[in-house]
Design brief:
With 146 residues, the chain is an alpha/beta fold. The chain has one domain: 3-Layer(aba) Sandwich (Rossmann fold). The protein contains five helices and five strands; from the N terminus they run βααβαβαββα. A five-stranded parallel sheet has the order 2-1-3-4-5, with helices on both faces. α2 runs parallel beside α5 and α3 packs parallel to α4. The longest helix is centred in the first third of the chain and has 14 residues. The chain is globular, with a radius of gyration of 14 Å. The termini are close together. The structure holds 1,3,4-trihydroxy-5-OXO-cyclohexanecarboxylic acid. 1,3,4-trihydroxy-5-OXO-cyclohexanecarboxylic acid (DQA) binds next to loops.
Length: 146
């Protein structure tokens, strides 16, 4: 039971706190990371928490998580709706994959209804704001087997 939990964040999530707070809330990604790290610590797990605006970097990190992680939580941001590359990379992940969104994309613009992540995720958590990260950590650690 020593593998780390991975939380990967996609484009524009580095702007949380400033970015459309009426949709995404006022908590920063830094603050969310600190809280997730303390939840992981309580469960005696280490946490790898990263953000990138670059699709290829996220693909590299998903491939790394496939080798290293006990579970993967992914908020792919807008790449959720566009990225076959992330979809393909997720197919390589043997452990639980939790798709995460602060907002509920299904209740927003039509273009957010296309989703390349959900079909290759174990489960999805959407619409709970920053609290969704805490829920996802709890769920991922409960599902993790390695
Ligand atoms: C998001 C939802 C996506 O549709 C959007 O492009 C984001 C954030 C969310 O967390 O609600 O960047 O993933």
């Amino acid at each position: 039971m020593t593998r780390p939990l991975y939380i990967l964040n996609g484009p524009n999530l580095n702007m949380l706190g400033q970015r459309e707070p009426e949709i995404y809330g006022t908590r920063t990604l830094d603050g969310i990371e600190k809280h997730c790290a303390s939840l992981a610590r309580e469960a005696k797990r280490t946490l790898v928490f990263r953000q990138s605006n670059a699709e290829g970097t996220l693909v590299d990190w998903v491939q790394e998580a496939a080798q290293e992680a006990c579970a993967l939580i992914l908020n792919a941001g807008a790449y959720t709706h566009t990225s076959i590359a992330l979809h393909d990379a997720l197919r390589l992940v043997p452990g639980p994959v939790i798709e995460l969104h602060l907002s509920n994309p299904a209740a927003r613009e039509n273009f957010r209804r296309t989703n390349y992540i959900a079909p290759v995720a174990t489960a999805s958590i959407c619409g709970f704001g920053a609290m969704g990260y805490e829920m996802a950590v709890t769920a991922a650690l409960a599902l993790a087997k390695t």
